[in-house]
């Protein structure tokens, strides 16, 4: 009875928490089991890939040992050697086995003649070694003898950088070495990715061993992956094979065409003939929650829904009462803030009026001059106040202040007034200061400056010099020459003292011979102090 709302809510939270913890525990167990299965499948597939590559390397090592003992390698002997390997039964995934003889730059014609003697009159070395290259490694024989494999005969593999790098690495390490991703010459116009495993063949000579050529096997990457999966089935997982890192541009082969980026994935490093590759095995089926988790979730939702209805009935009235109390507190806070703000505004306005009266009295020679000067300045202050009242004492555009003060002069035909600049909003006090300064400049221009005679021009330009500062420039041209021996007037004191003090930035006021120039730097303040009115408006309209 002491907690009519807390007890049902506590029961609701307790049951909801138990439900969530139960589902979490069930799903974590399921995820651990799936992760273990995924890791085991990735290990099995990576082992199958390495076994398939090791079998290929073993054939190439045996071939290299045989070919290194032969002075010449005729086509018939090479065909007999390959046929005895029974590639169709034991070497699935490869295009076959080939022999690429090392040909020096001056031996190409002799090499082409040897091909002719072997019955391959239409086969020649291509492309020829480029300038600076001393050797070529053309495809001499490639078994089995198929139409697809004949496309590669005569191709100078040493002319292609990726193949050349693999051959150089194989020669240095003297063991089978796989190339990075290439497109096999057998593909013709196709672009299916593949790779080649090279095994160097050396011959003994008086100066030691020397490179004789390479026995190699070309692989279509998709066929190679499928041949490995024949040993270890991928099951319900997606398998992707990458050259080096798992970037989409390095993809060699895949068993799944969809997007696996958001699925659980295991990456394994696979060494294929001395070349590190990456195997990615991912879950394909997104089964969601398990059956037990779904049953637990449904039961928990039913219980939670019943408690939610009960809690809603008990707390609805309390929420309405709390909302009403908050509304009254907000109204009281707004009234207090507005009272303090109004007091601040009145003090500032009275301070400006007192300063204007003091300076006007100091510069006036008689009561009439004092009244006229005071009247104009109070009217300028009033015009800016009207703008601030229209905006509910919010921010005021620079152009609106200038329009209000220069309205009496804007439509005269004998002179021109130009206003140009971006949309910039000023705080109330800064708008008042700008209005006073422009009024004094306009009054001076109408009496002695560019607005006092036909042809005069007044331009007011403003621009942002930073995120928190706007520069306003007043410039007069076409008026009477400005006297340089003039005495200091009230307008100068007002602008350089009161306005500069209010804006917290110095004012540049230059009486150049061709016209007055004044530069004001005005802060662009954040409107956080105006948020009270926004809140008041929203509260009044029920938003």
From TrEMBL:
Protein name in the entry: histidine kinase
The Enzyme Commission number assigned here is 2.7.13.3
A molecular function (GO) term: protein histidine kinase activity
The CHASE domain is annotated at: 69-280
Q: Which reaction does it catalyse?
A: ATP + protein L-histidine = ADP + protein N-phospho-L-histidine
Q: Which UniProt key words apply to this protein?
A: ATP-binding, Kinase, Membrane, Nucleotide-binding, Phosphoprotein, Transferase, Transmembrane, Transmembrane helix
Chain segments annotated as transmembrane? 288-311
Recorded hits in SMART domains, A to Z, give: CHASE, HWE_HK
Write down the InterPro entries for this protein, in alphabetical order. Answer: CHASE_dom, CHASE_sf, HATPase_C_sf, Sig_transdc_His_kinase_HWE
Q: Quote the subcellular location field of this record.
A: Membrane
What GO biological process terms does the UniProt entry carry, in alphabetical order?
signal transduction
Q: Which GO terms describe its cellular component?
A: membrane
Origin superkingdom: Bacteria
